[in-house]
From TrEMBL:
The gene is ffh. One of its GO terms (biological process) is SRP-dependent cotranslational protein targeting to membrane. Residues 268-281 form the SRP54-type proteins GTP-binding domain. This is Signal recognition particle protein. It is an enzyme of class 3 (hydrolase). It comes from Robiginitalea myxolifaciens. The keyword Secreted does not apply.
Length: 440
C-alpha cells in the first residue's frame, strides 16, 4: 500500500533524522521534498501546498530547530498532519433505523457490488446483524446475478426482481421485503455508469428521496487518483453522501485519493477495500493509515486481526496436544488456515513496522501455503497424526499426489519437526532451553 509515497517521505525525513541540529533551510528543503512526494502520489496540488505550509509552520513553531531530536519531532508533525488531513478519528456508520437503509453510490466498476457484499458480511459477522442485499441495477442483468453470487458466498439474502425496471419501486419493494422477513439492515446496490451523468444522478437522488437512507456511501476506486476526487465531488454535490469507501487499496495505488478526498468533499472515508474476497475490508482509521504511509506499520490492526481469528477453544486443544506430544499435521493445517483468515500475506507484512521497507522488492507469494496444504492433504489420516510413519516410499507417494517434489515434502517435515520442538519447549517454560537451542 502506498509504497512509493512511503519511500519518498522516508527519504525526505531521513535527511533530518540523523542530525542533532538543523536550520530553517533544512526544514524548508525537507518540506519541499515532502510536497514533491505528495504530488507524485497524485495528491491535489492545493492540498499538497497547504499541507507542507502547515508542516513548516508547525515545525518552526514547535522549536524543531532547537529540539534534541529534530528528525523525530518532524516525523510526528507530519504524522499528525497526515492524520488530520485524512479525517482525524475513524467514523462508524449509522445503524439506528429499523431496518437501517444503506444506499450505495458510485461509478460502474468502482467496486460497489463487491463492497455491498463485504459490508453485509461485516455487519453479519461482526455486528450480529441480519442484512438484506437489494439489487437495483435495472440495466445490467449481469449485475443482479453478480449480487446473487456474492450473497450466496456470504450466506446473505438478496432481493431482486428482473421484471421490475423501476429502481425506485425496486428499492421500496426491497425494504418492504426486509421488514416482512426480519432483516434489520438493507443494503441497496444501485446502477453505476462509466462516467458521471445526469440520468444516473437523477435516478439515485430519486431512490434517496423515496427510501430516506440512514447512510449514503460513495464507493470509489482508489487507483483512479485525482479522478476519484473529482468524481467524489460530483456525487457529493448532488447526493450529499455520508461517507466514502475507497476500494482497491491492495493494488498499486499511489495514495492521492486517500489523502485528498476528505479535504475536498469534507466527508470521512469510512471503509477501505483491500482485495476481491469478501473479508478484504477494513474500517478506515486515519491515524493508522498515517502510520502505514510513514512506514511505521499498523500493529494495532494486526493485533486486532489476530484477536478476531483467535479461537480460544482451539488454542486450548492444541496446547494439550503439544503437552502430550500429539501435535500433528491436522493441527498444523488448522493453524495455517487461521493465519490465512487474517488476510493476505502482503497485507499482514505491511502492518509490521519496518517490514514493508525491509521486504521491498521481494515477491511475497500468497500461494506459498498452497503447496504445504496440498502435501498435507495427500497424507493419510494416520500419517497426519503420526508423521514418524513417513518413510521414503510414503514421501514419494505424497509428493506425487500433491504435485510437489520429495524435497518439498522433506522440507515441510523438517519445518514441522522444528516447530513441534519449539512449541514443546515454550510450553515447558523453557525459554532458557530455547535460547540454548538457538545458540547451538
Ligand atoms: P461495480 O460495477 O461498482 O459494482 O464494481 P464491482 O463490485 O463489480 O467490482 C469491479 C471489479 O473490481 C471486480 O472485478 C472486483 O472483484 C474488483 N474489486 C472490487 N473491490 C476490490 C478491492 O478492494 N480490491 C481489488 N483488488 N479488487 C476489487
Amino acid at each position: 500500500m502506498f509504497n512509493n509515497l512511503s519511500e519518498k517521505l522516508d527519504k525526505a525525513l531521513h535527511t533530518l533524522r540523523g542530525r542533532g541540529q538543523i536550520t530553517e533551510i533544512n526544514v524548508a528543503e525537507t518540506t519541499k521534498e515532502i510536497r514533491r512526494a505528495l504530488l507524485d502520489a497524485d495528491v491535489n496540488f492545493k492540498i499538497a501546498k497547504e499541507f507542507t505550509n502547515r508542516v513548516k509552520e508547525k515545525a518552526i513553531g514547535q522549536d524543531v530547530l532547537t529540539s534534541l531530536q529534530p528528525g523525530q519531532l518532524m516525523v510526528k508533525i507530519v504524522k499528525d498532519e497526515l492524520t488530520e488531513l485524512m479525517g482525524g478519528d475513524a467514523e462508524g456508520i449509522d445503524l439506528s433505523g429499523n431496518p437501517s437503509v444503506i444506499l450505495m453510490s458510485g461509478l460502474q466498476g468502482s467496486g460497489k457490488t463487491t463492497f455491498s457484499g463485504k459490508l453485509a458480511n461485516f455487519l453479519k459477522r461482526k455486528k450480529s446483524k441480519n442484512p438484506l442485499l437489494v439489487a437495483c441495477d435495472v440495466y445490467r442483468p449481469a449485475a443482479i446475478d453478480q449480487l446473487h453470487v456474492v450473497g450466496d458466498q456470504i450466506g446473505v439474502s438478496v432481493y431482486s426482481d428482473k421484471e421490475n425496471k423501476n429502481p425506485v419501486s425496486l428499492a421500496q419493494a426491497g425494504i418492504a421485503h426486509a421488514k416482512a422477513n426480519g432483516h434489520n439492515v438493507v443494503i441497496i446496490d444501485t446502477a453505476g455508469r462509466l462516467a458521471v451523468d445526469q440520468e444516473m444522478m437523477d435516478e439515485i437522488s430519486n431512490i434517496r428521496d423515496a427510501v430516506k437512507p440512514q447512510e449514503i456511501l460513495f464507493v470509489v476506486d482508489s487507483m483512479t487518483g485525482q479522478d476519484a476526487v473529482n468524481t467524489a465531488k460530483s456525487f457529493n454535490d448532488v447526493l450529499d453522501f455520508d461517507g466514502v469507501v475507497l476500494t482497491k487499496l491492495d493494488g498499486d495505488t499511489r495514495g492521492g485519493a486517500a489523502i485528498s478526498i476528505k479535504s475536498v468533499v469534507d466527508k470521512p472515508i469510512k471503509f477501505i477495500g483491500t482485495g476481491e474476497k469478501m473479508d478484504a475490508v477494513d474500517i478506515f482509521h486515519p491515524a493508522r493509515m498515517a502510520d502505514r504511509i510513514l512506514g511505521m506499520g499498523d500493529v494495532v490492526s494486526l493485533v486486532e486481526r489476530a484477536q478476531e481469528q483467535f479461537d480460544e477453544e482451539q488454542a486450548r486443544r492444541i496446547q494439550k496436544k503439544i503437552a502430550k506430544n500429539r501435535f500433528g499435521f491436522d493441527d498444523f493445517l488448522s493453524q495455517i488456515q487461521q493465519i490465512k483468515k487474517m488476510g493476505s500475506m502482503k497485507d499482514l507484512i505491511g502492518m509490521i513496522p519496518g517490514a514493508g521497507k525491509a521486504m521491498k522488492g521481494l515477491d511475497i507469494d500468497d500461494d506459498a501455503f498452497k503447496h504445504i496444504e496440498a502435501i498435507i492433504h495427500s497424507m493419510t489420516p494416520a500419517e497426519r497424526s503420526n508423521p514418524a510413519l513417513l518413510d521414503a516410499k510414503r514421501k514419494k507417494r505424497i509428493a506425487k499426489g500433491s504435485g510437489t517434489s520429495i524435497q518439498e515434502v522433506n522440507q515441510l517435515l523438517k519445518q514441522f519437526t522444528q516447530m513441534s520442538k519449539m512449541m514443546k519447549m515454550m510450553q515447558g517454560g523453557g525459554g532458557k532451553k530455547m535460547m540454548q537451542m538457538m545458540q547451538n
